[in-house]
Amino acid sequence: MTVQVSTLPSGLRVVTHQMLAVESVSLGMWVHVGTRHERPEINGIAHMLEHMAFKGTRRRSARAIAEEIEDVGGHLNAFTSREFTAYHATVLRGDETLAVDMLADILQNSVFDEDELERERAVILQEIGQTNDTPDDVVFDHFQEIAFPDQPVGRSVLGTAEIVSNMPREALQGYMDEHYSASRMVFSAAGNIQHDAMVRLVEDAFDHLPGGGGGHIGEPARYVGGEFRELRDLEQAHLVLGFEGIKFTDPDYYPLSVLSVVLGGGMSSRLFQEVREKRGLVYAIYTFASSYSDSGLFGVYAGTGEAEAGEVMGVVCDLLRDLAGTIDSGELKRARAQIRAGVLMSLESTASRCEQLARQLLVLGREIPVAEIAARIEAVDNDALDRIARRIFSGPATFTALGPVKGAPDFGAMTERLA
């Protein structure tokens, strides 16, 4: 396994992982900007910009972009999160020159044609509508907003229909000019490639990225918590109970990852066994841990029937309250094995490895060797799990419920049950 990092004169970092046993190459540009770097009046612009990047450049039409990558059997895509935006491609070995050229083209030469903008605006409005019609998605948007109210990190990645409907072309160009500087970017590649050759390709292709680190700095996250309930005529009640989590660089990052697996990370987890297997109260129940540069969220999602909602949340509260001091060696060993296996299996995917390296450089400033990750996972012991469980579950809670949720317990009663 060979990982190398180079920094170009512009400040752009290039990281590669040479994987000679595969026939594919995954590569892309990760930008350290997302929803939390938006001002309130342009919420959703990072996501809209990601869409518009594929809608034509000074060299290629939107159709040409799609056809050229598919002419070689490749895939080109992008995504926006609260702290990152990524533009990435996967191609066969030998086609990486085309992929780099296309990414450079859309990130440096997009024209934001007015006709294309109006068409894509309609597509994004459809996406917002689809999300609103997907309760197990929208309940998480409500959870984020209640946990972090009136601040960028709590707002929807998609933005609102009203803002998207009125977003002018000039705002898109201005946002890209403000945030898409070389020092805020990492170009990552994994697969059957040579590092020096990739560095030359990237340096030649990305020849007019703006330097500097400017851009609107997202305000610090302020976790608040609380509750939100919305009655809807649905078959299932969608419930999320959570707490403030931890940032990427927190010493308890790995203990919390292990705790999440113990509690709700698989079929052997406590929540799955107690709530689904033993009591038959849910079809889906799991935990999640989201980290940001300065905060995070930890929570439990459950989808259940109207009549079962009260019992489900009661059992969840009891399991959270009683977790510290009760985790046995078998649970700990099994959770560590699951995480370690996931890390090692990700090394077999060029796309997973490409994204992993980009995130590590953007968040931590360096590549984290797999051996170091494995060692940190193995170092998690029962004391660490007890410590992080007490730390997380003693904080203010956030609860969101969507659907036939009249039977969900009172928020105050849940808070008391957790104490």
Kindly report how far apart the N and C termini lie: 48 Å
Mean pLDDT: 95
Radius of gyration: 23 Å
CATH superfamily of the largest domain: Metalloenzyme, LuxS/M16 peptidase-like
User: Main sheet: which strands, in order across?
Assistant: 1-2-6-3-5-4
Could you state the order of secondary-structure elements as H and E? EEEHHEEHHHHHEHEEHHEEHHHHHEH
The coarse silhouette is globular
CATH class of the largest domain: Alpha Beta
Mind describing the biggest β-sheet?
6 strands, mixed
Low-confidence stretches: none
Which CATH architecture of the largest domain is right?
A: 2-Layer Sandwich
Number of strands: 11
CATH topology assignment of the largest domain: Cytochrome Bc1 Complex, Chain A, domain 1
> What is the count of distinct domains?
2
Q: Count of DSSP helices?
A: 16
Structural class by sheet pairing and helices: alpha+beta
Tell me what portion of residues adopts beta-strand conformation: 15-25%
Percent in helix: 40-55%
